[in-house]
Design brief:
This protein is about 60% helix and about 5% strand. It is mainly α. It has a 3-stranded mixed β-sheet with strand order 1-2-3. α7 crosses α11. The model has no long low-confidence stretch (mean pLDDT about 95).
Length: about 325
């Protein structure tokens, strides 16, 4: 009810959303690639019905409770991101952005927030590709989301507004992960997955395979438990290691990597990174990392705006809770 909305409730609600955000994101990502609610072949009809109910509960009620739009993540991720691979037509591409720039990150996050609310990037892309079924599925999910928001608005307009605002602000979370996974791009071959994607090696499960991001992009439908072995084989295939940039996940979480990018701590990342052709040579790696943060196809800032951007990056990077 409107009378229950106060600063404490808003803070508690925001904290609860953040706590469930990452587990929900991991499970949804795994589900869209591995269909975790699909029963074994030969299962009884009863088992199939139970799994079907669990899948419906996860894809609709639970998704809505976590302020996510049904179908949006699956369609954008599978039919856009994995098709374009962070290329210029990817609606979440980081290629044209200065990955050390707080202003560029903010621009990327704002655009992603608008897309999360309206599908303003995803729907035109799908239309150009002739993906009419995916457009219908996305619009169905959007209709359900906004019907729920409208129903809430009847009882509590402030809460409905908060839900819509959280969706817009959610662009920041999406951009954190985009810059974390695709923040270093080789301008010589920006479309090669080994050149535009970072692998984070640490835990064997790699956050259900998401940290072994190169291996995930190469074969998205492969079960997440196989990515660690594939990454190990790629690393062992050459004495200088993996073809892609590999960073120690123990030192760089998504927020930690963003802090390093915004503060331009190339040497710090280089201390915990390696790549085939250079191996673990911090001085060479630092220069390579710097070169891979530059925007591709766009003019870089200069003058007063570049200075302001560097100051903002230093301030905001050091403010991140890493």
């Amino acid at each position: 009810l409107p009378s229950t909305v106060n600063y404490f409730v808003i803070a508690a609600w925001s904290a609860a959303l953040l706590l469930v955000l990452f587990p929900q994101d991991l499970i949804e990502h795994t589900h869209m690639h591995n269909r975790i609610f699909t029963p074994k072949i030969g299962s009884s009809d009863q088992v199939k019905r139970i799994f079907a109910v669990c899948q419906w509960l996860f894809e609709y009620p639970i998704t809505l409770l976590t302020i996510r739009m049904p179908e949006f993540y699956r369609i954008q991720h599978v039919y856009v991101h994995h098709v374009e691979g962070n290329g210029p037509d990817d609606t979440q591409s980081t290629m044209a952005y200065d990955r050390t720039s707080f202003l560029d990150f903010s621009r990327h996050a704002f655009i992603q927030g608008l897309d999360l609310l309206s599908g303003c990037l995803v729907i035109p892309y799908l239309r150009r590709k002739g993906k009419l079924r995916q457009i219908r599925e996305l619009q169905h999910g959007m209709a359900i989301f906004y019907a729920v928001v409208a129903a809430i608005a009847v009882l509590n307009p402030i809460a409905a507004g908060m839900i819509v605002l959280s969706r817009l602000v959610g662009g920041q979370i999406l951009s954190f992960f985009a810059f974390f996974q695709h923040g270093l791009i080789d301008p010589r071959d920006p479309m090669d997955v080994h050149s535009n994607t970072i692998d984070y090696h640490g835990h064997e499960h790699g956050h259900l395979g998401a940290d072994f991001h190169v291996e995930h992009h190469l074969k998205p439908a492969r079960h997440w438990s196989a990515y660690h072995g594939e990454a190990a084989r790629e690393t062992a295939a050459h004495e200088e290691g993996h073809r892609a940039m590999v960073v120690d996940k123990g030192f760089y979480s998504p927020l930690g990597m963003m802090r390093a990018l915004w503060t331009r701590d190339y040497a710090g990342v280089a201390e915990h990174a390696c790549i085939r052709g250079i191996g673990h040579n911090p001085a060479q790696l630092a220069e390579l990392i710097r070169a891979r943060t530059r925007p591709i196809g766009e003019t870089e800032r200069d003058g007063a705006m570049a200075t302001l951007d560097r100051w903002l990056g230093q301030i905001m990077g050091r403010a991140l809770p890493t």
